[in-house]
Amino acid sequence: MIKIKPLNKAIKYIRIIKPKLQSNLLDELNECLRQLDSFINLAEKTVLLKISIFIKSKDISEFNEKRNLLKARLTEHFGSMSPVISYIPEPSADKFNLVFESVLIDNSRSDYHIDFYHNPQTSYYIIANDNFEEIHGVSTDINIIGNGIYNQSSNCFNAIEDILKENGLTFSDIHRQWSYIGQINDFTAMNGKEFENYQQFNISRARYYSKCDWKNGFPAATGIGANIAGCTIEFTASPFYPSTIVIPLHNPKQQDAHQYSEKYQPEEMTLFQNNNHENTPKFERGKIVINNNSMDVYISGTAAILGEDSINQTITEQTEITLQNIKALYSIENLLNHGLEIDGLLPEFSHLRVYIKKSDDYLIVKDICNKFYPGIPLLIVVADVCRKELLVEIEAYANRIIERI
Q: Is the pLDDT of residue 157 over 90?
Protein backbone atom coordinates (compact mmCIF):
# COMPACT_ATOMS: atom_id res chain seq x y z
CA MET A 1 0.00 0.00 0.00
CA ILE A 2 1.25 3.47 -0.94
CA LYS A 3 0.17 6.29 1.38
CA ILE A 4 0.41 9.97 0.46
CA LYS A 5 -0.76 13.29 1.82
CA PRO A 6 -1.74 15.85 -0.85
CA LEU A 7 -0.81 19.43 -0.03
CA ASN A 8 -2.75 22.50 -1.08
CA LYS A 9 -0.34 23.51 -3.83
CA ALA A 10 0.21 22.54 -7.45
CA ILE A 11 3.32 22.60 -9.61
CA LYS A 12 1.45 22.68 -12.91
CA TYR A 13 -1.52 24.94 -13.58
CA ILE A 14 -4.12 25.04 -16.32
CA ARG A 15 -5.79 28.31 -17.23
CA ILE A 16 -8.77 28.50 -19.60
CA ILE A 17 -8.73 31.87 -21.33
CA LYS A 18 -11.57 33.24 -23.43
CA PRO A 19 -12.09 36.58 -25.16
CA LYS A 20 -14.28 38.97 -23.22
CA LEU A 21 -16.37 39.74 -26.31
CA GLN A 22 -17.00 38.09 -29.65
CA SER A 23 -15.00 39.87 -32.32
CA ASN A 24 -12.72 39.05 -35.23
CA LEU A 25 -10.01 36.40 -34.93
CA LEU A 26 -7.02 38.67 -34.27
CA ASP A 27 -8.85 40.88 -31.77
CA GLU A 28 -9.92 37.80 -29.84
CA LEU A 29 -6.36 36.46 -29.97
CA ASN A 30 -4.91 39.73 -28.67
CA GLU A 31 -7.42 39.77 -25.82
CA CYS A 32 -6.46 36.21 -24.82
CA LEU A 33 -2.77 37.09 -24.95
CA ARG A 34 -3.38 40.14 -22.79
CA GLN A 35 -5.08 38.01 -20.14
CA LEU A 36 -2.35 35.36 -20.32
CA ASP A 37 0.47 37.90 -20.02
CA SER A 38 -1.25 39.51 -17.05
CA PHE A 39 -1.46 36.20 -15.22
CA ILE A 40 2.18 35.29 -15.94
CA ASN A 41 3.42 38.71 -14.83
CA LEU A 42 1.66 38.30 -11.48
CA ALA A 43 3.02 34.79 -10.85
CA GLU A 44 6.72 34.84 -9.98
CA LYS A 45 8.86 32.28 -11.85
CA THR A 46 5.83 30.84 -13.64
CA VAL A 47 6.69 29.48 -17.10
CA LEU A 48 4.19 29.01 -19.92
CA LEU A 49 4.63 25.52 -21.35
CA LYS A 50 1.78 24.97 -23.77
CA ILE A 51 -1.30 26.53 -25.33
CA SER A 52 -4.04 24.46 -26.93
CA ILE A 53 -6.01 26.78 -29.21
CA PHE A 54 -9.49 25.59 -30.16
CA ILE A 55 -10.45 27.20 -33.46
CA LYS A 56 -13.79 27.72 -35.18
CA SER A 57 -13.59 26.98 -38.91
CA LYS A 58 -16.05 25.77 -41.52
CA ASP A 59 -13.55 23.84 -43.67
CA ILE A 60 -9.88 22.99 -44.00
CA SER A 61 -9.08 26.05 -46.12
CA GLU A 62 -10.47 28.41 -43.49
CA PHE A 63 -8.72 26.46 -40.72
CA ASN A 64 -5.35 26.69 -42.45
CA GLU A 65 -5.85 30.39 -43.14
CA LYS A 66 -6.67 31.06 -39.48
CA ARG A 67 -3.83 28.85 -38.26
CA ASN A 68 -1.34 30.75 -40.43
CA LEU A 69 -2.58 34.10 -39.09
CA LEU A 70 -2.34 32.85 -35.52
CA LYS A 71 1.15 31.43 -36.04
CA ALA A 72 2.42 34.73 -37.42
CA ARG A 73 0.98 36.74 -34.54
CA LEU A 74 2.15 34.27 -31.86
CA THR A 75 5.67 34.14 -33.32
CA GLU A 76 5.75 37.92 -33.13
CA HIS A 77 4.47 37.85 -29.55
CA PHE A 78 6.63 35.07 -28.07
CA GLY A 79 9.71 35.19 -30.28
CA SER A 80 12.32 32.54 -29.45
CA MET A 81 10.54 31.64 -26.19
CA SER A 82 7.43 30.27 -27.87
CA PRO A 83 5.62 27.55 -25.91
CA VAL A 84 4.29 24.41 -27.54
CA ILE A 85 1.13 25.42 -29.40
CA SER A 86 -1.58 23.04 -30.63
CA TYR A 87 -4.09 24.28 -33.21
CA ILE A 88 -7.19 22.16 -32.77
CA PRO A 89 -10.09 22.29 -35.27
CA GLU A 90 -12.86 22.20 -32.67
CA PRO A 91 -14.97 25.31 -32.03
CA SER A 92 -15.72 26.53 -28.53
CA ALA A 93 -19.33 25.98 -27.52
CA ASP A 94 -19.70 29.66 -26.61
CA LYS A 95 -19.04 30.62 -30.23
CA PHE A 96 -15.77 32.52 -30.02
CA ASN A 97 -13.33 32.28 -32.91
CA LEU A 98 -10.85 30.77 -30.48
CA VAL A 99 -10.24 29.87 -26.84
CA PHE A 100 -6.99 29.07 -25.02
CA GLU A 101 -6.22 26.21 -22.68
CA SER A 102 -2.83 27.14 -21.22
CA VAL A 103 -0.48 24.94 -19.18
CA LEU A 104 1.97 26.69 -16.86
CA ILE A 105 4.53 25.49 -14.34
CA ASP A 106 5.59 27.03 -11.04
CA ASN A 107 9.39 26.99 -11.21
CA SER A 108 9.97 28.79 -7.92
CA ARG A 109 11.00 25.69 -5.97
CA SER A 110 12.10 22.91 -8.27
CA ASP A 111 14.56 24.79 -10.50
CA TYR A 112 13.54 22.95 -13.66
CA HIS A 113 15.50 23.40 -16.86
CA ILE A 114 12.98 23.91 -19.68
CA ASP A 115 13.71 23.64 -23.41
CA PHE A 116 11.38 24.11 -26.38
CA TYR A 117 11.79 22.47 -29.80
CA HIS A 118 9.82 23.47 -32.90
CA ASN A 119 9.74 21.70 -36.27
CA PRO A 120 7.31 21.92 -39.22
CA GLN A 121 5.27 18.88 -38.13
CA THR A 122 6.09 18.67 -34.44
CA SER A 123 6.63 20.83 -31.40
CA TYR A 124 7.60 19.75 -27.88
CA TYR A 125 9.09 20.83 -24.60
CA ILE A 126 11.31 19.04 -22.09
CA ILE A 127 11.22 19.83 -18.37
CA ALA A 128 14.07 18.33 -16.36
CA ASN A 129 16.05 18.53 -13.14
CA ASP A 130 18.33 16.02 -11.43
CA ASN A 131 15.59 13.48 -10.71
CA PHE A 132 12.70 14.35 -13.02
CA GLU A 133 12.00 14.69 -16.73
CA GLU A 134 8.82 15.24 -18.71
CA ILE A 135 8.24 15.64 -22.42
CA HIS A 136 5.06 17.02 -23.91
CA GLY A 137 4.70 17.15 -27.67
CA VAL A 138 2.29 17.55 -30.53
CA SER A 139 2.39 16.12 -34.05
CA THR A 140 0.02 17.15 -36.83
CA ASP A 141 -0.92 15.97 -40.30
CA ILE A 142 -3.65 18.28 -41.63
CA ASN A 143 -3.50 18.93 -45.37
CA ILE A 144 -5.99 19.99 -48.01
CA ILE A 145 -5.11 16.86 -50.00
CA GLY A 146 -5.26 14.22 -47.28
CA ASN A 147 -4.21 10.60 -47.64
CA GLY A 148 -6.60 8.98 -45.17
CA ILE A 149 -6.73 8.81 -41.39
CA TYR A 150 -4.70 5.61 -41.17
CA ASN A 151 -1.81 7.20 -43.05
CA GLN A 152 -2.19 10.58 -41.37
CA SER A 153 -2.22 9.07 -37.87
CA SER A 154 0.74 6.86 -38.82
CA ASN A 155 2.64 9.97 -39.91
CA CYS A 156 1.91 11.51 -36.50
CA PHE A 157 3.00 8.38 -34.65
CA ASN A 158 6.19 8.22 -36.72
CA ALA A 159 7.06 11.77 -35.68
CA ILE A 160 6.27 11.03 -32.05
CA GLU A 161 8.41 7.91 -32.15
CA ASP A 162 11.33 10.01 -33.40
CA ILE A 163 10.92 12.45 -30.49
CA LEU A 164 10.77 9.61 -28.00
CA LYS A 165 13.81 7.83 -29.44
CA GLU A 166 15.87 11.03 -29.41
CA ASN A 167 15.23 11.21 -25.69
CA GLY A 168 15.74 7.53 -24.85
CA LEU A 169 12.04 6.77 -24.48
CA THR A 170 9.47 4.49 -26.11
CA PHE A 171 5.71 4.62 -26.56
CA SER A 172 5.30 2.81 -23.23
CA ASP A 173 6.65 5.92 -21.47
CA ILE A 174 3.60 7.93 -22.61
CA HIS A 175 1.24 8.62 -19.70
CA ARG A 176 -1.34 10.79 -21.46
CA GLN A 177 -2.39 11.09 -25.09
CA TRP A 178 -4.94 13.23 -26.96
CA SER A 179 -5.93 12.26 -30.50
CA TYR A 180 -8.00 14.65 -32.63
CA ILE A 181 -9.36 12.63 -35.53
CA GLY A 182 -10.94 14.37 -38.49
CA GLN A 183 -14.56 13.30 -39.14
CA ILE A 184 -14.13 10.50 -36.63
CA ASN A 185 -17.42 8.70 -37.45
CA ASP A 186 -17.12 8.85 -41.25
CA PHE A 187 -16.16 5.85 -43.35
CA THR A 188 -13.28 6.22 -45.82
CA ALA A 189 -11.30 3.86 -48.02
CA MET A 190 -8.43 1.81 -46.65
CA ASN A 191 -6.87 -1.06 -48.59
CA GLY A 192 -9.86 -1.11 -50.92
CA LYS A 193 -12.48 -1.31 -48.15
CA GLU A 194 -14.48 1.28 -46.23
CA PHE A 195 -13.51 1.67 -42.56
CA GLU A 196 -14.65 4.12 -39.92
CA ASN A 197 -11.98 6.77 -39.37
CA TYR A 198 -11.82 5.97 -35.65
CA GLN A 199 -11.17 2.31 -36.42
CA GLN A 200 -8.45 3.29 -38.89
CA PHE A 201 -6.83 5.32 -36.14
CA ASN A 202 -7.09 2.37 -33.72
CA ILE A 203 -5.37 0.07 -36.23
CA SER A 204 -2.53 2.57 -36.61
CA ARG A 205 -2.18 3.12 -32.86
CA ALA A 206 -2.22 -0.61 -32.14
CA ARG A 207 0.58 -1.25 -34.63
CA TYR A 208 2.86 1.36 -33.06
CA TYR A 209 1.95 0.34 -29.53
CA SER A 210 2.69 -3.32 -30.30
CA LYS A 211 6.39 -2.42 -30.30
CA CYS A 212 6.39 -2.01 -26.51
CA ASP A 213 5.88 -3.89 -23.29
CA TRP A 214 3.16 -1.95 -21.44
CA LYS A 215 4.00 -3.13 -17.92
CA ASN A 216 2.68 0.14 -16.42
CA GLY A 217 -0.54 0.15 -18.44
CA PHE A 218 -1.51 2.05 -21.57
CA PRO A 219 -1.75 5.85 -21.49
CA ALA A 220 -4.79 7.69 -20.27
CA ALA A 221 -6.24 9.01 -23.52
CA THR A 222 -8.88 10.92 -25.40
CA GLY A 223 -9.83 10.03 -28.98
CA ILE A 224 -12.19 12.70 -30.21
CA GLY A 225 -13.47 14.14 -33.46
CA ALA A 226 -12.24 17.20 -35.31
CA ASN A 227 -14.41 19.01 -37.80
CA ILE A 228 -11.95 18.85 -40.71
CA ALA A 229 -9.95 16.00 -42.23
CA GLY A 230 -6.60 15.22 -40.65
CA CYS A 231 -5.01 14.06 -37.43
CA THR A 232 -3.34 15.78 -34.50
CA ILE A 233 -1.81 13.84 -31.59
CA GLU A 234 -0.55 15.27 -28.32
CA PHE A 235 1.29 13.27 -25.66
CA THR A 236 2.94 13.55 -22.27
CA ALA A 237 5.76 11.13 -21.44
CA SER A 238 8.45 10.69 -18.82
CA PRO A 239 11.10 8.10 -17.99
CA PHE A 240 10.60 5.69 -15.11
CA TYR A 241 12.84 6.54 -12.15
CA PRO A 242 13.29 4.37 -9.01
CA SER A 243 11.03 6.77 -7.10
CA THR A 244 8.34 6.86 -9.83
CA ILE A 245 4.94 5.34 -9.15
CA VAL A 246 2.56 4.75 -12.06
CA ILE A 247 -0.97 3.50 -11.43
CA PRO A 248 -3.30 2.68 -14.35
CA LEU A 249 -6.85 3.23 -13.15
CA HIS A 250 -9.69 0.82 -13.79
CA ASN A 251 -13.30 1.88 -13.46
CA PRO A 252 -15.65 -0.45 -11.55
CA LYS A 253 -18.48 0.76 -13.81
CA GLN A 254 -16.71 0.24 -17.14
CA GLN A 255 -14.86 -2.42 -19.08
CA ASP A 256 -11.28 -1.51 -19.89
CA ALA A 257 -11.36 -0.16 -23.46
CA HIS A 258 -8.42 -2.33 -24.52
CA GLN A 259 -10.50 -5.38 -23.51
CA TYR A 260 -13.60 -4.58 -25.55
CA SER A 261 -15.23 -7.58 -27.18
CA GLU A 262 -15.61 -8.22 -30.91
CA LYS A 263 -18.98 -6.45 -30.65
CA TYR A 264 -17.11 -3.16 -30.96
CA GLN A 265 -14.80 -4.23 -33.76
CA PRO A 266 -16.33 -4.44 -37.26
CA GLU A 267 -16.01 -7.81 -38.97
CA GLU A 268 -13.63 -6.31 -41.54
CA MET A 269 -11.16 -5.56 -38.73
CA THR A 270 -10.21 -9.24 -38.69
CA LEU A 271 -8.13 -8.46 -41.77
CA PHE A 272 -5.72 -6.60 -39.52
CA GLN A 273 -5.66 -8.61 -36.30
CA ASN A 274 -4.36 -11.88 -34.95
CA ASN A 275 -6.31 -11.92 -31.68
CA ASN A 276 -9.58 -10.54 -30.36
CA HIS A 277 -8.10 -7.47 -28.68
CA GLU A 278 -5.32 -6.45 -31.05
CA ASN A 279 -7.05 -3.39 -32.51
CA THR A 280 -9.14 -2.33 -29.54
CA PRO A 281 -8.68 1.25 -28.27
CA LYS A 282 -5.38 1.18 -26.38
CA PHE A 283 -5.91 3.36 -23.33
CA GLU A 284 -6.66 3.18 -19.62
CA ARG A 285 -9.62 4.89 -18.01
CA GLY A 286 -7.19 7.05 -16.07
CA LYS A 287 -3.62 7.17 -14.83
CA ILE A 288 -1.82 8.47 -11.76
CA VAL A 289 1.86 9.33 -12.03
CA ILE A 290 3.88 10.19 -8.92
CA ASN A 291 7.38 11.60 -9.35
CA ASN A 292 9.13 12.62 -6.14
CA ASN A 293 6.78 15.13 -4.50
CA SER A 294 4.42 15.71 -7.44
CA MET A 295 1.31 13.74 -8.38
CA ASP A 296 -0.44 14.00 -11.77
CA VAL A 297 -3.96 12.62 -12.17
CA TYR A 298 -4.99 12.06 -15.78
CA ILE A 299 -8.67 11.21 -16.37
CA SER A 300 -9.27 9.88 -19.88
CA GLY A 301 -12.04 11.02 -22.14
CA THR A 302 -15.09 9.48 -20.45
CA ALA A 303 -18.58 8.95 -21.84
CA ALA A 304 -21.92 7.34 -20.98
CA ILE A 305 -20.64 3.79 -21.29
CA LEU A 306 -21.45 1.14 -18.69
CA GLY A 307 -19.56 -2.12 -19.06
CA GLU A 308 -18.71 -1.72 -22.72
CA ASP A 309 -22.12 -0.56 -23.96
CA SER A 310 -23.26 2.98 -24.71
CA ILE A 311 -26.20 4.31 -22.73
CA ASN A 312 -28.16 5.90 -25.55
CA GLN A 313 -30.22 8.41 -23.59
CA THR A 314 -30.82 12.18 -23.56
CA ILE A 315 -27.99 14.67 -23.20
CA THR A 316 -28.97 15.19 -19.55
CA GLU A 317 -28.79 11.48 -18.75
CA GLN A 318 -25.61 10.93 -20.75
CA THR A 319 -23.85 13.83 -19.01
CA GLU A 320 -24.89 12.61 -15.56
CA ILE A 321 -23.77 9.03 -16.30
CA THR A 322 -20.46 10.32 -17.64
CA LEU A 323 -19.79 12.35 -14.50
CA GLN A 324 -20.85 9.44 -12.29
CA ASN A 325 -18.30 7.31 -14.16
CA ILE A 326 -15.59 9.89 -13.42
CA LYS A 327 -16.57 10.03 -9.74
CA ALA A 328 -16.43 6.23 -9.51
CA LEU A 329 -13.01 6.18 -11.17
CA TYR A 330 -11.51 9.02 -9.14
CA SER A 331 -12.67 8.28 -5.61
CA ILE A 332 -11.00 7.53 -2.30
CA GLU A 333 -12.44 4.01 -2.44
CA ASN A 334 -11.31 3.21 -5.97
CA LEU A 335 -7.80 4.56 -5.38
CA LEU A 336 -7.58 2.44 -2.24
CA ASN A 337 -8.53 -0.58 -4.36
CA HIS A 338 -5.55 0.33 -6.57
CA GLY A 339 -3.18 0.41 -3.59
CA LEU A 340 -3.10 4.18 -3.08
CA GLU A 341 -4.24 5.55 0.28
CA ILE A 342 -4.97 9.28 0.45
CA ASP A 343 -4.44 10.99 3.80
CA GLY A 344 -6.97 13.81 3.60
CA LEU A 345 -9.15 14.98 0.73
CA LEU A 346 -8.78 14.03 -2.91
CA PRO A 347 -7.02 16.78 -4.86
CA GLU A 348 -9.58 18.75 -6.85
CA PHE A 349 -9.42 18.84 -10.63
CA SER A 350 -7.80 21.93 -12.08
CA HIS A 351 -10.35 21.89 -14.90
CA LEU A 352 -12.75 19.77 -16.93
CA ARG A 353 -12.57 19.68 -20.70
CA VAL A 354 -15.95 18.78 -22.18
CA TYR A 355 -16.75 17.76 -25.75
CA ILE A 356 -20.37 18.01 -26.89
CA LYS A 357 -21.75 16.80 -30.19
CA LYS A 358 -24.48 19.46 -30.49
CA SER A 359 -23.82 23.10 -29.69
CA ASP A 360 -27.46 23.48 -28.55
CA ASP A 361 -26.64 21.25 -25.54
CA TYR A 362 -24.08 23.72 -24.19
CA LEU A 363 -26.12 25.24 -21.35
CA ILE A 364 -27.53 21.89 -20.24
CA VAL A 365 -24.09 20.29 -20.01
CA LYS A 366 -22.53 23.35 -18.39
CA ASP A 367 -25.19 23.38 -15.66
CA ILE A 368 -24.81 19.66 -14.88
CA CYS A 369 -21.00 19.87 -14.74
CA ASN A 370 -21.22 22.82 -12.37
CA LYS A 371 -23.54 20.84 -10.08
CA PHE A 372 -21.22 17.81 -10.01
CA TYR A 373 -17.99 19.81 -9.73
CA PRO A 374 -18.85 23.30 -8.45
CA GLY A 375 -16.16 25.91 -8.93
CA ILE A 376 -14.07 23.81 -11.32
CA PRO A 377 -13.25 25.69 -14.56
CA LEU A 378 -14.91 24.27 -17.67
CA LEU A 379 -13.81 24.32 -21.27
CA ILE A 380 -16.64 23.14 -23.54
CA VAL A 381 -16.01 22.56 -27.24
CA VAL A 382 -18.07 21.04 -30.04
CA ALA A 383 -16.83 17.74 -31.48
CA ASP A 384 -18.07 14.34 -32.56
CA VAL A 385 -17.48 11.51 -30.09
CA CYS A 386 -16.02 8.11 -31.03
CA ARG A 387 -19.46 6.42 -31.12
CA LYS A 388 -22.26 8.08 -33.08
CA GLU A 389 -24.83 7.60 -30.33
CA LEU A 390 -22.70 9.39 -27.72
CA LEU A 391 -23.45 13.08 -27.25
CA VAL A 392 -20.81 14.10 -24.69
CA GLU A 393 -17.32 13.19 -23.51
CA ILE A 394 -15.47 14.63 -20.50
CA GLU A 395 -11.85 14.51 -19.35
CA ALA A 396 -10.09 15.98 -16.32
CA TYR A 397 -6.68 16.66 -14.79
CA ALA A 398 -5.27 17.31 -11.34
CA ASN A 399 -1.77 18.05 -10.05
CA ARG A 400 -0.65 18.35 -6.45
CA ILE A 401 2.49 18.51 -4.39
CA ILE A 402 2.41 15.55 -2.02
CA GLU A 403 4.15 14.08 1.00
CA ARG A 404 4.85 10.36 1.04
CA ILE A 405 3.90 8.81 4.34
A: yes
